[in-house]
Amino acid sequence: EYVIDNGQLILAEEAKIDRNDRGYHFGDGLYEVIRIYDGKPFTMTMHLDRFAASAKKLDMSLPMTMDQLESLLEQLIEKNQLEDGIVYVQMTRGVSQRNHLYSRSETAVITGYSQEMPAKKELLKNGIDVWVTDDIRWLRCDIKTINLLGNVMAKREAADHDCHEAVMHRDGMVTEGSSSNLFLIKDNILYTHPATNLILNGITRQVVIQIAKELGYEVIEEAFPKDVIEHADEAFITSTTSEVTPIKQFKGQVEASLEIGPITRQLQEAFEQRK
Ligand code: PLP
């Protein structure tokens, strides 16, 4: 099994992480998760563009070109003979003695691994329950930072209520899931939070919006209050690993039972074709 350690492809057992990495001290880093279908990366360019955008927003410079990074990830996939799974890649602001102030002279550290991960067929078919809770995260959720405490807390809270995912709201306005974006469908129109600083603009979200428009659906990117969930016809989450996963029940601050409807199924099918 190969991994990426400090920008190099090496055997996993030889990997070494410095204890003074700013990722450990401050969660000072960013990441991407890229899906591999039949040995081929899906929407790799969009992920790499978001990686570069996150780096820019965090005032972090890359220790290699984006082309070099792409080729490194391709080598990882090939060496590990990855078929259906994910590639995780992260970049931290490098190694230095613990100090809140960063200097801009440390070299960023890129690490990564691959993992087989077949589609979760049962969830895609039967849907999931979600737990509605407060969004306690910071105000730069558009950055894909490894600093995920708000997301982690929400996910645990959801699991403690037998839910697969948390759906978060900020002052009553629904933002997104702990590791996914949320869509509601009402009267053949799709609703999802706009790509502002309050959510991560998911790659799957973007692909699904495009697919929906191609299929002739109207997509409204506007924030909606959590109470409208009760009136939705259908709902689903999107992410690199969960693709288009239907929601069958909302629990917690909103209670609603939904049918897994025809538009969700149509989007799932169209997504499957695009893979
Ligand atoms: N929102 C959050 C907070 C996430 O962590 C993720 C993915 O991990 C997403 C949305 C979905 O993004 P993507 O479709 O690019 O995987």
Short descriptors:
alpha+beta; pyridoxal phosphate; 28% helix; D-alanine aminotransferase; nine-stranded mixed β-sheet; D-amino Acid Aminotransferase, Chain A, domain 2; binds pyridoxal-5'-phosphate; D-alanine-2-oxoglutarate aminotransferase activity; 15 strands; D-amino Acid Aminotransferase, Chain A, domain 1; BCAT-like_N; 275 residues; single chain; globular; 7 helices; four-stranded antiparallel β-sheet; aminotransferase
Structure description:
- This protein has 275 residues and is α+β, with helices and mostly antiparallel strands.
- It folds into two domains: 2-116, Aminotransferase class 4, branched-chain amino acid transferase, N-terminal domain (D-amino Acid Aminotransferase, Chain A, domain 1); 121-274, D-amino Acid Aminotransferase, Chain A, domain 2, CATH 3.20.10.
- Helices cover 28% and strands 31% of the residues.
- The chain contains seven helices and 15 strands.
- The protein has helices at residues 22-26, 44-57, 66-79, 121-126, 149-160, 203-214, 262-274, and strands spanning 2-5, 8-11, 29-37, 40-41, 85-92, 109-116, 128-134, 165-170, 173-177, 181-186, 189-192, 218-221, 234-239, 243-252, 256-257.
- Strands 7, 8, 9, 10, 11, 12, 13, 14 and 15 form a nine-stranded mixed beta sheet that branches. The protein has a four-stranded antiparallel beta sheet with strand order 4-3-5-6.
- The protein is globular and about 55 Å long.
- 38% of the residues are buried.
- It binds pyridoxal-5'-phosphate.
- The site of pyridoxal-5'-phosphate has 14 residues, from helix 6 and strand 13.
